[in-house]
Specification:
heterodimer, A: about 525 residues, alpha+beta, eight-stranded antiparallel sheet, 19 helices, about 10% strand, globular, B: about 110 residues, mainly alpha, 4 helices
């Protein structure tokens, strides 16, 4: 076995063994780039901002509300709606010494400032977290599994480059009528073109979970004592040097004044949040978060003393002066893409989808190649049937399950206890059915029929989502388009686009079947396509 | 400026793909046999377009964001070109001409 052969072996098996987990990670991780939009769709009770956000009235209302609900908070902040983020929210953190300790939040009406009760939902956050926390298993195990998958992905990427003999010659090549070669070309296209994205996302993903998987490094300094580890975390990740409360009550300048002052000093500033540390105290600080125009940050901040309005030094960040921490932070920002504007967000999203397509075409190619060889030799392999069945149940079954998750969001009773959990259960229940369907059906149907059935279900279920939205909320696609609300309209339009893509896939599989059937009549030894 | 850069990247991908005989045979059958100097010219113009595309993005968005935009867009541009060559190869030359005409029009806007 020469070097290239051993690399091919490594690429094939590292790709196949964890390919399905990688597919899940790519699909759900990619939805994370639009998690806010997904959550917005999943909470239709939140009214649409009808006019320009009236800061003069709404910021004082939010501040007043915080004073009512969070009189003992040690920190609170107001999030302002802007761009893709439609929420007008208040957040507060109560000290550990009182009953309602920890973080709390409330959504406010962006038109009136009145608190809104939205349905309980796991939202887009669940899909995003699924790509690294998984579900039903301990977090630590999930971190290890996803890190292992990322490591295998990195191996598959490097070995893929090594074994691709004509990487530059075939750079733009997609021979779509060449059966097996078409799958290989597709896998190569999806694999090679966004390779900088894959290297970045895989490597940064590994770095983000390094405190789980590269435990011996911090353990060599801090030992394996959980308390010492917590201490290490606090030392390394303390966000800002907090100003201790003086313990003396003092009146603060209204938050609107700080907002207006920042807007006067910086006319182009897009203010995203107003935070207060030690509210009602002599040492209270006000922090104004501004959307930066360049760089990978998602907010620049300026700070003032709340009692007299004097400027206060900007918070020191945990990466200040530490090259390794700055590197970690850059990896984190690149991976999450929170800084990305609309165009870049779509580029992230499309690159992520291409990643999912790369994994899917890789596993399908594995099965198609072996099916051809097995059919030719007259062998029937259980392993191959298992891979073929899993390919259908995962590649199409997962999107069906995600659609079922959206259906559950709208169809489960609003007052259901642990509603968010049941939304997640619905996803896994439907996915389980999609996974066993190919094995049940293969007894009396061809593989291509199984693909057609699941693809048809996917096309139908995605096409029905905008209809479901119309039936279960006051804010349907046409209304959203009329109001120019691209967050809601975009979600429904994307569902229709997904339905169209699945329908095209059904058409393609059926067309290939007909060609194969005709060819099989003429020449019975001809190769069969998926 | 971003629109012009994206367009240059597309243009570069077209030139790079046409420097390969396999794609020329599909897209421009009359010119499938070009001299080495003409092929090199196509290759060079393709790379220059990509370099200018990267330079514009870095200049307008900074090194960090410019590179992120650059890699992201290049993947999409190259993928679009691969699809065009696969489904409608004959459309490549008119698309290339259209982009060459549109690119200078974007200059005043940027």
């Amino acid at each position: 076995m020469n070097f290239r052969h051993s690399m091919t072996w490594l690429h094939t098996w590292s790709g196949l063994l964890l390919g399905w987990l990688l597919y899940l990670m790519f699909v759900t991780g990619t939805t994370g780039y639009f998690d806010v939009e997904i959550t917005r769709w999943m909470q239709p009770e939140i009214p649409v901002q009808s006019e320009q956000f009236d800061t003069n009235t709404l910021i004082p209302k939010a501040e007043q509300r915080l004073r009512e609900v969070a009189p003992k908070a040690e920190e609170y902040f107001i999030e302002l709606p802007q761009g893709r983020y439609p929420y007008f929210m208040i957040w507060w953190h109560n000290p550990d010494t009182i009953d309602e300790a920890g973080w709390h939040s409330e959504i406010l009406d962006p038109n009136t400032g009145v608190p809104i009760t939205a349905r309980e939902t796991a939202g887009g956050e669940f899909l995003y977290r699924l790509h690294y926390v998984l579900h039903y298993i301990p977090k630590a195990l999930a971190y290890w599994l996803t890190s292992l998958a990322a490591m295998f992905m990195l191996v598959a990427l490097v070995t893929g480059v090594v074994i691709h003999r004509r990487i530059f010659k075939d750079f733009f090549t997609f021979r779509r009528t060449k059966k097996q070669t078409s799958w290989l070309d597709m896998h190569n296209l999806f694999g090679v073109l966004p390779i900088p994205f894959y290297l970045m996302i895989t490597y940064s993903g590994l770095i983000l979970l390094m405190f789980s998987t590269m435990l011996p490094i911090p353990a060599s300094t801090f030992g394996l004592n959980p308390e010492k580890f917590k201490q290490m975390y606090n030392t390394v990740f303390t966000e800002a040097a907090h100003r201790d409360a003086a313990g003396i009550a003092a009146d603060s300048i209204p938050l609107l004044d700080f907002y207006q002052r920042t807007q006067t000093e910086n006319k182009d500033a897009v203010i995203v949040h107003i935070a207060v540390e030690n509210p009602g105290d002599k040492h209270a600080l006000v922090e104004i978060g501004i959307q930066p125009k360049t760089g990978l940050d998602n907010a620049d901040t300026t700070r003032y003393q709340a009692t007299n309005g004097e400027a206060y030094p900007a918070a020191s960040h945990y990466s200040d002066g530490s090259a390794p921490m700055a590197f970690y932070e850059t990896m984190e920002k690149l991976h999450e893409g929170l800084f990305a504007g609309p165009l870049l967000r779509w580029l992230y999203f499309l690159s992520g989808l291409m990643g999912a397509a790369m994994v899917a075409t890789g596993t399908i190619f594995w099965a198609v190649k072996r099916r051809y060889a097995h059919d030719k030799a007259g062998i029937e392999s259980r392993g191959l049937r298992l891979v073929e069945g899993l390919n259908v149940g995962i590649v199409v079954g997962l999107p069906i399950a995600i659609a079922a998750y959206f259906f559950a969001n709208r169809l489960l009773p609003a007052a259901l206890e642990s509603r968010a959990e049941w939304e997640a259960h619905s996803l896994f229940l439907v996915w389980f059915i999609a996974l066993i369907h190919p094995f049940v059906r293969r007894a009396n149907a061809s593989l291509s029929s199984v693909w057609t059935e699941q693809l048809s279900v996917a096309a139908l279920i995605y096409a029905l989502i905008p209809l479901l939205n119309m039936m279960t909320s006051d804010y349907h696609l046409i209304k959203a388009l009329r109001h120019g609300d691209w967050v809601l309209a975009g979600f429904d339009l994307f569902m229709l686009l997904a339905a169209f893509c699945f329908a095209c896939a059904v058409y393609r599989v059926n067309k290939n079947n007909k060609i194969d059937e005709t060819a099989a009549t003429v020449n019975p030894t001809n190769e069969v396509r998926v | 400026m971003t629109a012009l850069a994206c367009l240059l990247s597309l243009l570069g991908c077209m030139a790079l793909s046409l420097s390969k005989k396999r794609h020329r045979k599909e897209a421009l059958p009359r010119y499938k046999n070009l001299s080495d100097s003409k092929v090199r010219c196509l290759l060079l113009s393709g790379f220059i377009c990509q370099l200018v595309f990267a330079a514009i993005l870095i200049e307008s968005k900074g090194v960090a964001l410019g590179l992120v935009y650059g890699f992201g867009w290049f993947s999409i541009a190259a993928f679009s070109q691969a699809l065009l060559l696969s489904f409608r190869p004959r459309w490549t030359p008119p698309a290339l001409v259209a982009l060459v005409i549109v690119a200078p029009l974007l200059l005043p806007a940027s």
